[in-house]
Amino acid sequence: MKKLKDTVYMLESGRFVNMYAIVHGKSAVIIDTGTPGKANDILDELSAIRVKPCDIEAVIITHAHPDHAGSSGALLARLYAKLYIHEGDLGVLLGKEPFPKPHYLLEKLSVFVTTHVWKYKPPAEAVALDESSLIPGFPGLKIIHTPGHTPGCLSVLDPESGTLFCGDALNNRSDKLTGPLKYFTGDMDQAWRSIEKISALPFNTLCPGHGNSIPEGAQQKVKDLLTGNRQKPK
Ligand SMILES: [Zn+2]
Predict the structure, then answer these.
(1) Rounded to the nearest whole angstrom, what is the distance from the C-alpha of residue 225 to the centroid of ligand 1?
(2) What is the pTM of this model?
(3) How many CA atoms lie within 13 A of 65 on its CB side?
(4) Ligand 1 centre and the CA of 86: distance in Å?
């Protein structure tokens, strides 16, 4: 467990995908659950900062890709909390709609890994969010719809700590801030419009789904990324 701010933690058992917790006193909200098989690790990490399973108020999934939602079902079985996801990704999360048809070889490979290696099992239920939704115990959090990577991709803005959790709307692999990986993104034009939307939000710290967090000056970095993208030859 890595403390990023007084109330913001990054869980370290996710390896290549990030999971976060916002902790107020003993109450916590979890953002993303990593690949399948992480539920025990998540609870162990939280118990190290004295957050018990009954203190977890909500689990928010930034989007239905199984590297972010993989342990949501197993985790939910051990909590009183509910699972929340944007309405645009709810059907895929619950396994009621198929993953969007894989276009690229990499994407086809990831569907194979998800199904046959990770043996991903969807959670039994989840609550659909939109931008007016409030998270129990954390009424200050704002849900921002940032589609493109997936139709229901969401970001979570925590105004109190000035932190934005953006899932895969932005990547910071190798400490290089970029848009989402095009091989795994349904609509790149929409993804860039979501990055425009993100650039207007009030935040200082960015917590992406992959790569290190950006502790300071993150909003300006997003604006610089947009400027660079506009100048790229199309
Ligand atoms: Zn993703």
Answers:
(1) 19
(2) 0.94
(3) 26
(4) 14
Architecture per CATH, 2-231: 4-Layer Sandwich (3.60)
Rounded Cα distance between 26 and 24, Å, is 6
Token pair, residue 200, equals: 């207007």
Enter the DSSP assignment of 170: S
**Residue (of 51, 209, 201, 60) closest to 135 by Cα position:** 60
153 φ, ψ (degrees, to nearest 5):
-55, 130
| Extents of the domains making up the chain | 2-231
Task: Count other Cβ atoms within 10 Å, centred on residue 18.
Answer: 25
One digit per residue, the tens of pLDDT, for the chain of length 234 reads 999 999 999 999 988 899 999 999 989 999 999 999 999 999 999 999 999 999 999 999 999 998 999 999 999 999 999 999 999 999 999 989 876 665 666 666 676 777 777 777 889 999 999 999 999 999 999 999 999 999 999 999 999 999 999 999 999 999 999 999 888 888 999 999 999 999 999 999 999 999 999 999 999 999 999 999 888 876
Tokens of 55: 């203190």
Ligand 1 centre distance from Cα of residue 25 (Å): 31
Closest by CA to 119, choosing from 95, 102, 86, 103, is 95
